[in-house]
Amino acid sequence: MIDKINTHIAEVKAFNAESKKEVEAFRIKYLGKKGILNDFFASFKEVPNDQKKAFGQAVNALKNTAETKVAELKETLEGKQEEKGIYGDLSKPGEPIEIGARHPISIVKNQIIEIFSNIGFNVSEGPEMEDDWHNFTALNLPEYHPARDMQDTFFIQTDPDILLRTHTSSVQVRYMENNKPPIRTISPGRVFRNEAISSRSHCIFHQVEGLYIDKDVSFADLKQTLLYFTKQLFGKSKIRLRPSYFPFTEPSAEVDIYWGLETETDYRITKGTGWLEIMGCGMVDPNVLKNCDIDPTEYSGFAFGMGIERIAMLLHQIGDIRMFYENDLRFLEQFKSSF
Ligand code: DAH
User: Fold this and answer.
1) pLDDT value, residue 245
2) Where is the Aminoacyl-transfer RNA synthetases class-II family profile domain positioned along the sequence (predicted)?
3) Low-confidence ranges of the chain (pLDDT < 70)
4) What is the DSSP letter of 215?
5) Which atom of ligand 1 is nearest to the CA of 209?
6) How far is the CA of 304 from the centre of ligand 1 (A)?
7) Which residues partner with 185 through β-bridges?
8) How far separated are the first and last CA of the chain, in Å rounded?
9) Which residues face 255 on adjacent strands?
């Protein structure tokens, strides 16, 4: 009888399983209600008294070995499954990694930066939350100036001196306060206006501001710089400067590019004229220079400002400004680009 038990112990020790099912079948065979161990326990009363002790010890040894075996096998099989859970099937071919796309606003912004950096402009930035001085007063827009109304401003309720900047011209002021001429800088950034949202306007959009201050800077320099820019960005080589008004420049102008009248879309977007307005510009008003501690008798300069959304809409024929902010992947994925 004891020999039989020892054979079982050897068998249990040698047992191995590939699946939980096999372990369960093994457990039932030895430890189940009608299993081998219970058979041995049942035959206990037939064992002669002098052998009872040795028999009992042998049966207990078999029970312990079987229980340990079952627990061990369960543990290793579970471990294996966890490994699979984390790493999956390691022999499978890899999944392709999709290349993302930059946002069209970033692409166009980077294009503009690149064009101006090629002619010596650096990039400067300023805060989106501004004070009255940098957004208005220093730019020749004192309190009660009617032109303040043109820019529907978001004020911070608790402090009427603090607002969300309505244009990136505020960065001009900051830059001039902190740097001496010659200055050649462009300032891209987000701006905010309390405007109704439609296909053509939004309350949050982006601008790029340009500023050039040095000795003897003239209006001709401004025109030539903008002509270079429009040629590079749009491939169009005809521009016109229409007289306009901005408080911070004198004289001021609106820049139009000749888009052409080749397609129906050209007719529609230029309203049949062939011309498209793309930015505002002018010679920096002497008052603005004074406000920034630059002597207007020694230095002069020009400035310009454009909306990035407008430029991106023209370049990529986007009909609705809201597309930029909806994060629709079908729209965004069309802009896979190296910029
Ligand atoms: N700040 C103007 C706007 O938001 C744009 C602008 C016009 C900027 C003329 C300039 C400029 O620097 O000279 O509408």
Assistant:
1) 95
2) 108-326
3) 80-86, 150, 337-339
4) T
5) 12
6) 6
7) 122, 211
8) 84
9) 241, 279
Residue whose CA is at the smallest distance from ligand 1 atom 5: 305
304 C-beta closer than 6 A to ligand 1: yes
Strand 183-192 relative to strand 122-123, pairing: parallel
pTM for the model stands at 0.73
- Whether 165 is in the pocket of ligand 1, judged by its Cβ within 6 Å, is no
Ligand 1 neighbour 181 (Cβ under 6 A): no
DSSP string, 227-277: HHHHHHHH----EEEEEEEETTEEEEEEEEEE--S-SHHHHHHTTTSSEEE
Residue 82 has a pLDDT of: 57
- Of 96, 278, 316, nearest to 332 (Cα)? 316
Residue with tokens 């390691």: 90
- Dist. CA 210–CA 306, nearest whole Å: 9
Domain map (residue ranges) of the chain = 2-87, 104-335
The two structure tokens encoding residue 111: 């294009």
SS3 labels along 94-111: CCCCCCCCCCHHHHHHHH
C-alpha of 217 from chain center: 39
Task: Decide: 303 in ligand 1 pocket, CB within 6 A.
Answer: yes
| 219 within 8 A of 253, measured Cβ to Cβ | no
User: Distance between CA atoms of 317 and 268, rounded to whole angstroms?
Assistant: 12
33: number of CA atoms within 13 Å, CB side?
0
Q: Rounded to the nearest whole angstrom, what is the distance from the C-alpha of residue 158 to the centroid of ligand 1?
A: 28
250 is in an annotated binding site: yes
- Kind and range of the H or E run holding 57: helix 49-87
Q: Cα dihedral sign for 10, 16, 17, 20?
A: positive
Q: What angle do CA 220, 225, 226 make, to 5 degrees?
A: 100
Q: Which fold has domain 104-335?
A: BirA Bifunctional Protein; domain 2 (3.30.930)
